[in-house]
Amino acid sequence: MPAHAVPARSAPPVMKTRLPTIAIGLAASLACGTPVPAQQPAPAPAPSPAAPPAGTPSPAQTTPLPTTTAPGPGPGTNQAPTPPAPEKALPPATPVPPTAGRPPLVANPGDPSDVDEVTLPAKPTAILAGKATWDQAVPNLKDAIGKVETALAGAGVKANGKPLAVFTRTDDDGFQYEVMVPVETVPNPRPAGLPDDLRFGATPSGKALRFTHKGPYEGIDQTYETVTAYLDAKGIIVQDAFVEEYLTPLTSPADDALEVNIYALPK
C-alpha cells in the first residue's frame, strides 16, 4: 500500500449489498358453483336403545379421562372468584438524548462537492472501542453509540457534540473502531455505574481534510473513492485512522437523510 493511500476502508464483497428489503404478494381466484340436489326426506328416527340394567357403570366411569393437574379448591358458596393478578409493569427504558442541537467539531457546514481544510479541536469525550464486519457496520456502530449515550445519561454526564467513529484498523473482512461522544467535561471522580469498557479521553485534533457524505451509508464507499482519488492526486500522506462524524443519527444503511463528515488527518 502506498504511504498516501487510504487504508482498506472500502468495498469488501459484503458491502455491495446491505440489508435488502423483502416484498410479498398474494393472489386469489374465484371458484364456480354447482347446482344443489333436491333435498331428500329425512330418515325415520332410530328407536331408542333399551335402558341398561341398574348398577351398570357409565362410560365415563369405565374409561375416565386422564387428569393432568389436581383440581384446586373452588370458590365457596356466595364467594366471588379471585381476580387474576395484574401483570408486573416493566421499568421504562432510559431515554437516549437526541443529538440535534449539539455542535459538530467544525462549526461551518461542509460542501459535498468540495474538500475543506479545517482544524479539529481536542474535545473531552467518552470512548468505547469495538470491532465489526462491514455488513454489520451500521447496526454495530448504532448500538455502540447508543450504549455510550445511555451510559452518560444515566450517570448524569452531559453530552456536548455529535457522535464520532474513528476507524483504527481496517481490512477486507471488517474493522476496529472507537466510538466517541464528546462531553462538556471529563467527570472526576468517575461516576459509579458506567460500563467498565467505557473510558474518557479527547477527540482527534489538528489539521484535517473534511469530505462530506450525504445519502445512504451503503453508498459511502463512493465518497471514500473520492477521498482516495483526491489524496493520490495531491500526493498527501494521511494517518491510518479516518474519522466519521454523524451529523444525523445512524438509523439504517438505506437512510437517504444521513449526513456524515469524513476527516482525513495528514501526517
UniProtKB/TrEMBL annotation:
Signal peptide: 1-38
Domain AraC effector-binding: 113-267
Swiss-Prot/TrEMBL keywords: Signal
Taxonomy, superkingdom: Bacteria
Bias (Pro residues) ranges: 38-56, 92-101
Segments of this protein annotated with the region Disordered: 33-118
Gene3D superfamilies, A to Z: Regulatory factor, effector binding domain (3.20.80.10)
Amino acid composition bias (Low complexity), ranges on this chain: 57-80
Name of protein: AraC family transcriptional regulator
Record organism: Methylobacterium nonmethylotrophicum
